[in-house]
Amino acid sequence: MFHRSERLLLRPIWPEDWQAVYGGIADEGVVRNLARAPWPYSKQDARDFASRVPAPNEPRFLITTACNGHVVGCIGLDAHVSDSSGREYPGAVEIGYWIARQHWGKGFATEAGRAVLSIAEALGYPRVYGSHFLDNPASGTVLRKLGFEPTGRVIERHSCGRGEAAMTAEYALELATASGNSDSKAA
User: Fold this and answer.
1) Domains defined along the chain, listed by start
2) Which InterPro entries does UniProt cross-reference here (predicted)?
3) Region 72-87: what's the mean pLDDT?
4) Strand 185-186's sheet: what is its strand order?
5) Separation of alpha carbons 104 and 142, rounded Å
């Protein structure tokens, strides 16, 4: 699956992309804001990530600039949404993303997020969850720009990059109310 927005092309991650993934994520400032990526992030971690085949209903994308194909980051959906007590949220997905440090503050996370929300809606998901570590308020800003609302829950979540649990703020978006968020086209 591919998705084109105004400035970005979201495309599948292929095994040969491992070096581009590594170049963007092998930064402690990026990894510490993620739940599943380890720190230090190794070349083998990048190879393994780029080689994984996602489930059809859980797309993940390499975020590239549409004009020259430079890698900006990654974004995707995970259908295994649960809280710290293990309670599952059936029929929901969680959005996850990272942006390489040199591309922070340019609106790429918001633009890619709109594209992925459009895809989530096309896949029939009624609700999307998102969260951010409390010491990463920029990610909360992105979620709010995308139309997510705080659930009022602050939960502890393990961060592989930090090597410990940290508090996260949880957000949710009902896609029926988000239909005006996407101004791009999926292919």
Assistant:
1) 3-186 (3.40.630.30)
2) Acyl_CoA_acyltransferase, GNAT_dom, N-acetyltransferase
3) 78
4) 149-159, 164-174, 127-133, 92-99, 71-78, 60-65, 8-11, 3-4, 185-186
5) 11
